[in-house]
Specification:
The protein has strands at about 1-5, 10-15, 20-25, 35-40, 50-55, 60, 70-75, 80-85, 95-100, 115-120, 120-125. The strands form 2 sheets. Strands 2, 4, 5, 6, 9, 10 and 11 form a 7-stranded mixed β-sheet that branches. A 4-stranded antiparallel β-sheet has the order 1-3-8-7, with no helix packed on it. A hairpin with a 5-residue loop joins strand 5 and strand 6. The chain contains no helices and 11 strands. It is mainly beta. The chain is globular, with a radius of gyration of 14 Å.
Length: about 130
């Protein structure tokens, strides 16, 4: 089992920055691949892929909507993954979730159903 705890969310004005953290505990061999997803408020909103990386952090993946603004990174010594979010926009408002999996095919990083473990989420609100 792996436990994931997110932190760092909050309220920020458009154009501002936030840094989200996801700390893993438990069976860390199961969190070689880590992704960030978000779910915006409102009915029918699905969980949306934001960014992902492999254990080595050699490969990173981003949704087109956040490329150039968000950066995913990790500190293996701390079992932590970070999401640096710059130039935030009101449409970035969502609950952000950290997810982990031991194995994911290279073309499946954006698929929420391929992740085995999820954190409780952290709220990010961007005001205009």
């Amino acid at each position: 089992q792996v436990q994931l705890v997110e932190s760092g969310g909050g309220l920020v004005q458009a154009g501002g920055s936030l840094r989200l953290s996801c700390v893993a505990s438990g069976r860390t061999s199961s969190n070689r691949n880590v992704g960030w997803f978000r779910q915006a408020p409102g009915p029918g909103k699905e969980r949306e892929f934001v960014a992902a990386l492999r254990w080595s952090a050699t490969y990173t993946y981003y949704a087109d909507s956040v490329k150039g603004r968000f950066t995913i990174s990790r500190d293996n010594a701390k079992n932590a993954v970070y999401l640096q979010m710059n130039s935030l926009k009101p449409e970035d408002t969502a609950i952000y979730y950290c997810a982990a999996a031991a194995l994911i095919a290279p073309d499946r990083y954006a698929s929420a159903s391929d992740y085995d473990y999820w954190g409780q989420g952290t709220q990010v609100t961007v005001s205009s």
